[in-house]
Protein backbone atom coordinates (compact mmCIF):
# COMPACT_ATOMS: atom_id res chain seq x y z
CA UNK A 1 0.00 0.00 0.00
CA UNK A 2 2.75 2.45 0.91
CA UNK A 3 4.61 1.67 -2.31
CA UNK A 4 1.47 2.14 -4.43
CA UNK A 5 0.72 5.45 -2.70
CA UNK A 6 4.31 6.62 -3.17
CA UNK A 7 4.20 5.71 -6.88
CA UNK A 8 0.87 7.48 -7.32
CA UNK A 9 2.23 10.54 -5.55
CA UNK A 10 5.35 10.50 -7.70
CA UNK A 11 3.28 10.19 -10.91
CA UNK A 12 1.11 13.13 -9.82
CA UNK A 13 4.22 15.17 -9.08
CA UNK A 14 5.63 14.38 -12.55
CA UNK A 15 2.32 15.29 -14.20
CA UNK A 16 2.11 18.64 -12.43
CA UNK A 17 5.82 19.32 -13.11
CA UNK A 18 5.29 18.64 -16.82
CA UNK A 19 2.24 20.91 -16.87
CA UNK A 20 4.26 23.65 -15.17
CA UNK A 21 7.11 23.22 -17.65
CA UNK A 22 4.64 23.40 -20.53
CA UNK A 23 3.15 26.63 -19.15
CA UNK A 24 6.67 28.02 -18.69
CA UNK A 25 7.56 27.21 -22.31
CA UNK A 26 4.35 28.84 -23.53
CA UNK A 27 5.03 31.92 -21.41
CA UNK A 28 8.61 32.06 -22.66
CA UNK A 29 7.49 31.82 -26.30
CA UNK A 30 4.89 34.55 -25.71
CA UNK A 31 7.53 36.69 -24.02
CA UNK A 32 9.85 36.29 -27.01
CA UNK A 33 7.02 37.19 -29.41
CA UNK A 34 6.19 40.28 -27.31
CA UNK A 35 9.84 41.38 -27.22
CA UNK A 36 10.10 40.98 -30.98
CA UNK A 37 6.89 42.94 -31.51
CA UNK A 38 8.18 45.70 -29.20
CA UNK A 39 11.45 45.91 -31.14
CA UNK A 40 9.65 46.07 -34.48
CA UNK A 41 7.19 48.67 -33.15
CA UNK A 42 10.02 50.86 -31.86
CA UNK A 43 11.75 50.59 -35.24
CA UNK A 44 8.59 51.55 -37.14
CA UNK A 45 7.90 54.44 -34.78
CA UNK A 46 11.47 55.68 -35.18
CA UNK A 47 11.19 55.53 -38.95
CA UNK A 48 8.02 57.65 -38.81
CA UNK A 49 9.90 60.19 -36.70
CA UNK A 50 12.75 60.20 -39.22
CA UNK A 51 10.34 60.82 -42.10
CA UNK A 52 8.88 63.73 -40.13
CA UNK A 53 12.38 65.17 -39.58
CA UNK A 54 13.18 64.97 -43.30
CA UNK A 55 9.86 66.58 -44.17
CA UNK A 56 10.41 69.38 -41.64
CA UNK A 57 13.87 70.10 -43.08
CA UNK A 58 12.63 70.01 -46.67
CA UNK A 59 9.81 72.41 -45.76
CA UNK A 60 12.33 74.64 -43.96
CA UNK A 61 10.58 74.29 -40.61
CA UNK A 62 13.69 72.78 -39.07
CA UNK A 63 17.38 73.52 -39.58
CA UNK A 64 19.42 70.58 -40.91
CA UNK A 65 21.78 70.74 -37.92
CA UNK A 66 18.86 70.50 -35.48
CA UNK A 67 17.36 67.62 -37.45
CA UNK A 68 20.71 65.82 -37.34
CA UNK A 69 20.95 66.35 -33.57
CA UNK A 70 17.41 64.99 -33.06
CA UNK A 71 18.13 62.04 -35.33
CA UNK A 72 21.26 61.13 -33.37
CA UNK A 73 19.29 61.31 -30.11
CA UNK A 74 16.57 59.08 -31.56
CA UNK A 75 19.14 56.59 -32.83
CA UNK A 76 20.73 56.40 -29.38
CA UNK A 77 17.31 55.91 -27.78
CA UNK A 78 16.42 53.24 -30.32
CA UNK A 79 19.70 51.41 -29.78
CA UNK A 80 19.13 51.47 -26.02
CA UNK A 81 15.55 50.23 -26.38
CA UNK A 82 16.08 47.61 -29.06
CA UNK A 83 19.60 46.49 -28.29
CA UNK A 84 22.56 45.69 -30.43
CA UNK A 85 22.39 43.25 -33.36
CA UNK A 86 22.55 39.74 -32.02
CA UNK A 87 20.99 40.62 -28.65
Please describe what this structure looks like.
With 87 residues, this protein is mainly alpha-helical. It has one domain (2-82). Helix content is 87%, strand content 0%. Helix 1 (2-58) runs antiparallel to helix 2. The longest helix has 57 residues, at 2-58. The protein starts with a helix and ends in a 5-residue tail after the last helix. The model has no long low-confidence stretch (mean pLDDT 83).
The whole-angstrom Rg is: 26 Å
Q: How large is the share of residues in beta strands?
A: under 5%
The structural class is: mainly alpha
Shape: rod-shaped
Quick one: how many beta strands? Answer: 0
Percent of residues in helical segments?
A: over 70%
* Poorly predicted tracts of residues: none
Report the sheet with the most strands, covering strand number, pairing sense and barrel closure. Answer: none
Topology:
Layout: H1 2-58, H2 64-82
Give keywords.
87 residues, mainly alpha, 2 helices, 87% helix
Short recap of the structure:
The chain is 87% helix and 0% strand. It is an all-alpha fold and 87 residues long. It has one domain.
Amino acid sequence: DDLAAALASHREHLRTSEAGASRQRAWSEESIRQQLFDRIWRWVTAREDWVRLVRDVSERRLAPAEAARQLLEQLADLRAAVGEPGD
